[in-house]
Please model this.
Amino acid sequence: PTTESVTITLPQAGDIRTVMRGGVVVEQVFVPAGSFMMGTADGQLVQINEQPIHEVKLNEFWIDRTEVTNTQFDAFVENTSYKTTAEQFGGGISYLFDEIIGFRGVYTEDAYWKQPIGLGSDIKGLEKYPVVQVSWDDALAFCEWAGGRLPTEAEWEYAARGHEGLIYPWGVEIPSCDIANYSFDCVQGTAEVGTYLKGSSWVGALEMSGNVWEWVSDWYD
Model:
């Protein structure tokens, strides 16, 4: 027995830890337990499927600080010999820019994560960019390999908007190209993860708005 006191330091919102996956170091941020009003309130930029706004209570969790990079996904494929949905089907959807209608999805033969827009494309020099051409099944398999899981829609939204239910991860300020990669006028494609520090969420998660869409575990219904 001892009379010495022991101090246990619990993680706080925004604390960062590193984990190792297939030889790649990955940062995660801590999201504390709490509640928030999920959905969009009247008077904001409302879509009908974002209502009714309702309270959600969540346990604490850790979430990757950035989107999954090509380097991370490559480690997963090398370790498991995994074949993505796009590889199995012989192609995927590439998002190309049209000056008249903006970005549009086009089925592209031979497009997969290593050839994002088909034959002739590659990811050389894009090691720190977010992996694309990844289906929900691919994302699920990656998370299981990584010893984690996909976040729920509520967890993702809470990590992005926090207790206050901010309109954007960074607050209420209208997006600009120094905050998020949200327009063809910003970057003609994706940007390296961790680029938009000004757009970080209340827990320090990055690029939760703009750059690429991100999967959650829930099915849309």
Observations:
- The chain has a mean pLDDT of 92.
- The longest strand covers residues 24-31.
